[in-house]
Amino acid sequence: MAPPAALELVAVTKRYDTTLAVDTVNLKIPAGTYCCLLGPSGCGKTSTLRMIAGHEAVSEGDIILGAQNVTDLPPAKRGTAMMFQSYA
Fold first, then answer.
1. What is the DSSP string of 32-44?
2. Residues in a beta bridge with 22
3. What is the three-class DSSP state of 70?
4. Strand bridging mode 7-16 / 60-65
5. Residue 21: DSSP 8-state
6. pLDDT on residue 81
7. How far apart are CA 70 and CA 79, in angstroms?
8. CB–CB of 9/61 below 8 Å?
9. Strand pairing partners for 69?
10. Could you list the pLDDT tens digit for every one of the 88 residues in the chain?
11. How distant is the alpha carbon of residue 83 from its chain centre?
12. Greatest CA separation found in the chain?
């Protein structure tokens, strides 16, 4: 098992056509810690998680996992996972 890695979102933005779903998110999560994304329905939580996991393309910005920019890597190459609350 790989050691925990820090996660950093650098100006991460997601657009669906003309709809801005995630607006320039900057976030640093230290290795080995937990982080919760809280907000109302439709605020971009799931889009952000999907971009981190690699299931959704980033429109702008970078996702850094450890020391590696994983923005353009496919999900299988990231070593991340995503589970919806209803399955947890």
1. T--------TTSS
2. 14
3. coil
4. antiparallel
5. E
6. 79
7. 10
8. yes
9. 64
10. 667 789 999 999 999 999 999 999 999 999 999 999 999 999 999 999 999 999 999 999 999 999 999 999 999 998 887 777 666 5
11. 13
12. 41
Place of tokens 């801005």: 20
Contacts of 48 (CB under 8 A, 6+ apart): 9, 12, 14, 22, 25, 37
Tell me the two tokens of residue 44: 């971009």
What is the identity of the amino acid at 42?
A: G
Are the C-beta atoms of residues 47 and 56 closer than 8 Å to each other? Answer: yes
Write the single-letter amino acid at 38.
L
d(CA 57, CA 66): 19
Tokens of 46: 């799931």
* In the chain, domain spans: 1-9+24-59
pTM of the model: 0.89
pLDDT (0 to 100) of residue 82 = 77
* Pick from 19, 7, 24: nearest CA to 58: 24
